[in-house]
Design goal:
With 407 residues, this protein is α+β, with helices and mostly antiparallel strands. The strands form three sheets. The chain has a six-stranded antiparallel beta sheet, sandwiched between helices. It has a three-stranded antiparallel beta sheet with strand order 3-5-4. Helices cover 35% and strands 12% of the residues. The radius of gyration is 20 Å and the shape is globular.
Length: 407
């Protein structure tokens, strides 16, 4: 019942834009390919693209921190369910955990999806639990509005001119660092009607994390074998880290470490540590429509909800916890690639972290690194990911060739 209402209301909100947008179908697991829960099955780079891919990788690995696109520390490529390529900078390797930065938002969005699938969240169009007091209009903002960054708070992150006016810096490294949730309550009033304006917000995803902890605590029970919510001390960070493992990470074999602030709030807008291979597992869960090893982890339709612009705002670059990877005319400008494949969607993090998911190519590309956020660094990184993706054949072309050969 929940998801039927979600899809209906999403369709109404998106209107003709969503219909015109269209979505490339998400392919199922290839026959005979093992799931990567324990380790990635290995494959080969297609011979036809090997030389061109080598050149793109060489260029990415050759640049330093101050050069265009910055320093690349890890590249992992998953094609048709197999690890076909990986490379690392000196000092990094397959087991090195690296920081997600805002790729954590995509993980937090997935945790909301898990909570929906398990019945812990009834409807994302209901008001989300928050630390705002009863009667505060901010307490009426819905899960959907927080997930799609249309919460309406007077908050500045992208577009700030320095450290003092950048709200994420003040929240995480200034006066708000000990208790981000309380800082949000104290500092950010409503500037717009919720649902009307898109505004990039780490604060919103920290509050989603806060809400997930509340939902898990309310549902805490030792009698649900499918999810371990049993705990003696519900406020314990270790307990909620274990909940995250049980809900998501353990299910896909992802060894990841979330971070918390001093008040015990999971910093789900910014900080999860994992290896490039494990970030690829997370991207692969979305490539496979929220299914892992024949078990549906995310509600049917959740990935599609995440990878399209779900609301009628001027912005067209963001879904629900995921960036919409390409658009010929992105709004805001420079916040997405402008070249094909246009079905790409991505998790992105500060200083050049990306999980690039391309359904039309049955492809996941992880790039981790260190680069300045300014200049044309992000557009160059977008285009590098797209250049890698364009090397691979379309799934539809491959299937047509196979059918012709069999015929």
């Amino acid at each position: 019942m929940f998801f039927k209402s979600l899809l209906i209301s999403a369709a109404c909100a998106a209107g003709l834009q969503a219909s015109a947008q269209g979505l490339v179908p998400l392919a199922p697991q290839p026959y005979g390919v093992a799931w990567a829960t324990q380790s990635w099955p290995e494959g080969e780079v297609p011979a036809a693209i090997e030389e061109k891919l080598s050149l793109l990788v060489r260029d990415a690995m050759a640049t330093g921190v101050t050069e265009p696109m910055g320093q690349t520390r890890a590249i992992v490529i998953i094609h048709e369910g197999r690890l076909i390529f990986e490379t690392y900078a000196d000092g990094f390797g397959p087991g090195t955990k690296q920081v997600s930065w805002s790729m954590a938002k995509s993980i937090t969005s997935a945790l909301v999806g898990r909570a929906v699938e398990l019945g812990l969240i009834e409807d994302i169009d209901y008001a989300m639990p928050t630390p705002f007091s009863d009667g505060d209009p901010r307490s009426e903002i819905t899960w959907r509005q927080w997930l799609t960054m249309t919460d309406g708070l007077d908050y500045l992150e992208i577009g700030s001119t320095g450290l003092t006016d950048n709200d994420v810096v003040q929240m995480m490294y200034g006066p708000g660092r000990f208790d981000v949730a309380q800082h949000i309550v104290d500092e950010f009033e409503l500037a717009h009607d919720p649902g009307a304006v898109w505004n990039y917000s780490t604060a919103g995803f920290h509050l989603i994390s806060w809400a997930l902890q509340e939902v898990a605590a309310d549902a805490s029970s030792c009698d649900r074998p499918e999810i371990d919510l049993c705990a003696e001390t519900l406020a314990d960070q270790t307990w909620f880290a274990g909940v995250i493992d049980g809900l998501l990470f353990d299910r896909i074999g992802m060894d990841a470490q979330p971070e918390f602030d001093s008040a015990g709030t999971f910093l789900g807008g910014s900080l999860v540590w994992a290896s490039a291979r494990d970030f690829a597992k997370f991207g692969y869960l979305y490539l496979r429509d929220g299914v892992w090893d024949d078990e549906r982890l995310l509600p049917e339709g959740w990935v599609d909800f995440s990878r399209r612009d779900p609301v009628a705002t001027k912005a067209n670059v963001y879904g629900a916890g995921w960036w919409l990877g390409a658009d010929p005319a992105p709004e805001p400008a420079d916040q997405a690639a402008t070249t094909p494949p246009f079905d790409a969607f991505s998790a992105q993090g500060h200083e050049g972290q990306t999980i690039w998911v391309v359904p039309s190519k049955d492809l996941v590309v992880v790039r981790l690194g260190l680069m300045p956020n300014g200049g044309d660094n992000w557009p160059r990184l977008y285009e590098w990911n797209q250049s890698v993706a364009r090397l691979f054949p379309d799934v539809s072309d491959r299937e047509a060739s196979s059918a012709e050969a069999e015929g």
